[in-house]
Design goal:
about 325 residues; two-stranded antiparallel ribbon; mainly alpha
């Protein structure tokens, strides 16, 4: 193995983990407020990103400026989240947990089908937000076999990570220092107690789903700037599920840490494949390894720390 490439793959994995952490945060947000694990997060991500492309596209869409297209897509994502909560999930209040899980799975298939009907299945060129032609180069203060070690960082990965972390920080500030954020935190702790002190928990649920829609759209936009836009974009959320369980289902910092760990692991597992597999199968082998490693991490976590790194261990007295 070429250990000289280890820092390069590690930092690239961490940068890729930024959007994964943001997507995981959206899943945790829903679970904290309503105790619903949202399996439709990937399709919400896909619709928000497709809406951005449609509002921006001068040929097949409205041809709006990119900044305005992103704002319009955010509004679409907010509306989608509110509709899902009001029309699909609120009528299931008090129903068995399995019914709610099956509803989110059904929503995922419904939204995927609607996306195919409206936008088709072809891959699209997503608008360039960050420069992809002039990567940053950083010379590390040590060598390997007397050769200097240089990190080459693509600008789109760096700035996608920065934007994702800014969004995470803004959400944390919102939860800590606003009355709505305080109401959401109280609802997350205990629904009945929050309702007894006058908090409208249905309103909190709606706000949580609206936030989750916006988070999904932002995460999809950041990923699409690097990988393009097609229906497979919704599969990205499969890496966020293990990140959520790794960090802890109810922990916002855990979602961030879990996403970064998953991104780092995907970057590191690509290193041996890039050295030992050559030819046309190399790229596919790297992608397969990156897809598998989050679930290897998930199995280890469930075996040795099922509550996650920052999860709460609840003890019930009977």
């Amino acid at each position: 193995m070429n250990w000289q490439l280890l820092p390069q793959f590690a930092i690239t994995g961490l940068l890729n983990g930024g959007p994964i952490a943001l997507i995981a945060l959206g899943i945790v947000l829903i679970f904290k407020s309503s105790e619903i694990f949202n399996f439709a997060q990937g399709q919400m991500l896909l619709i928000g990103t497709m809406a951005t492309w449609w509002f921006w596209s001068p040929d097949a869409g409205l041809g709006l400026p990119l900044w305005l297209a992103i704002i319009c897509a955010m509004l679409v994502s907010v509306l989608l989240g509110l509709l899902i909560e009001r029309l699909a999930l609120r009528p299931l209040t008090g129903q068995p947990l399995l019914s709610i899980i099956l509803m989110t799975l059904a929503l995922a298939q419904l939204l995927q089908g609607l996306t195919i009907l409206v936008f088709g299945t072809v891959q699209r060129n997503f608008p360039v937000i960050f420069d992809v032609t002039n990567p940053y180069q950083i010379t590390l203060p040590f060598t390997y076999n007397d050769n200097p070690m240089i990190l080459v960082l693509r600008q789109n990965l760096v700035w996608s990570f920065v934007v994702a972390m800014i969004c995470v920080t803004l959400l944390w500030l919102f939860f800590q220092y606003t009355s709505t954020g305080l109401a959401m935190r109280a609802t997350a702790e205990d629904h009945e107690t929050a309702q007894s002190v006058g908090i409208r928990i249905n309103r909190v649920f709606g706000i949580s789903w609206a936030f989750a829609g916006v988070i999904a759209a932002v995460g999809g936009i950041l990923i699409a700037t690097a990988s393009g836009l097609d229906l497979s974009l919704s599969i990205v959320v499969l890496a966020a599920f293990p990140a959520v369980l790794l960090g802890g289902l109810e922990s916002i910092p855990g979602a961030v840490v879990g996403g970064l760990i998953v991104g780092l692991a995907q970057g590191l597992v690509a290193l041996p494949n890039s050295n030992f597999i050559f030819g046309p199968d190399a790229a596919q082998a790297v992608r397969n390894s990156a897809a598998i490693v989050p679930y290897v991490i998930l199995l280890v976590v469930l075996l040795f720390r099922p509550d996650g790194l920052f999860g709460q261990k609840r003890i019930e007295r009977i």
